[in-house]
Give the backbone structure.
Amino acid sequence: MATTRRQFLALGSMAAMALAATACGGDSSNGESSSDDKGTTLTYWASNQGTSLANDKEVLTPVLADFTKKTGIKVKLEVIGWNDLQTRIQTAITSGQGPDVLNIGNTWGVSLQATGGLMEFDDAEMKAVGGADRFVKAALETGGAPGTKPTSLPLYGLAYGLYYNKAMFKTAGLTPPTTWEEMVAAGKKLTDPSKGVYGLSLAAASYTENAHFAFINAAQNGAALFDSAGKPTFTSTGVVEGVQRYIDLMQTDKIVNTSDSQYDNGTLSVTAFAKKKAAMIINQNNADATIISAGMKADEFGVVPFPAPKDAKKNVASHIAGINIAVMKSTKHKDQALKFVNYMTSEAVQETLGKPYSALPVLKDGKATFTSDAEELKVFTEVYNTRSEPLPLVANEDQYESSVGKAMNNLFAKAATGTTVKSADITSVLKTAQESIR
């Protein structure tokens, strides 16, 4: 669940002070206070989106204070790290003792829905938070299984893009790739092992990243990872060929350094890019500050959509990544919790938090604020709104990520040692992964 394991951008104290001012601008519909609201305290479990738990408190405190000022409803904030959040949520659902409102990784949406511990957003609840129509459709779909009422709503959006080094491309006489074939060709031209420079860097030992790209490449091939009955179809031709294409970036195209087989998180590949050891990376829009903090200037890199093969059946460039917000079914303050969800997903608050959390707007008419680069904003917004699909909306999606992602880790490790990874090898490990799904 990569969206839950991302390293988000730093926010200094000056930015936090600015938040206090911007958070108070703009109103939130359904934010009027009532006599029932006075004296009510909501418990809110926020996910760790900043550089530390303390940083998140610094970012969120003025935003929550503004909500209290508008409604009279107090909010008790607890920021929980990603290593603990899912376990805490599962324990809270089992015991019935937990927060009123909470953040979840959006890839957990269906599995947590299946527990029955989260409140459904039926017609009345959806109306209380401003209606379903204001959300990006694909983002809203992460909140529950197809044909069901969602039990979580989009809060922060992320999407993949292909970052490229402008100077390297210009010197080589290249233009940014628009197809997979162009990306590989550019990567080959820009690879110079004698200088330790490669066309592309991947987090090839990150099972979450690998699972995401198994999904994206399969989707480009028109293949699904689960059938309509929710049964895994990992060994289908489109899935196998998609994984092969991705592994071949290191194995046969040789535009990825074999040492990337040890990169177990996206920060390592981002740093390689920033240090000009790689001409391209495939990363989510929260990579900008990490790139800049590692020494690369903002005007030295550009972003285009992650390209599909020229004969792709679907022009998918990302999965719908991000964070959702939910209400516990056990809350004793349902009306107040809905007012809080409405506030957190309001246009004003979305714009306020979009910059420090490097998030894309989850609202159809939302304004992206994570960068001042108009072209980058355009690329990521287009990808998120029109070229992204949700990861499998099944209760055992987490098992898919773990089994397939780790299998791909091993395939990259083999390719790095010079062992040829064939289609039959991929089919074999995917069959094992498929049989492990319960």
About this structure: Residues 1-29 have pLDDT under 50 and may be disordered. The first strand starts at residue 41 and ends at 47. The chain has two domains: 2-158+320-389, 160-318+396-436.
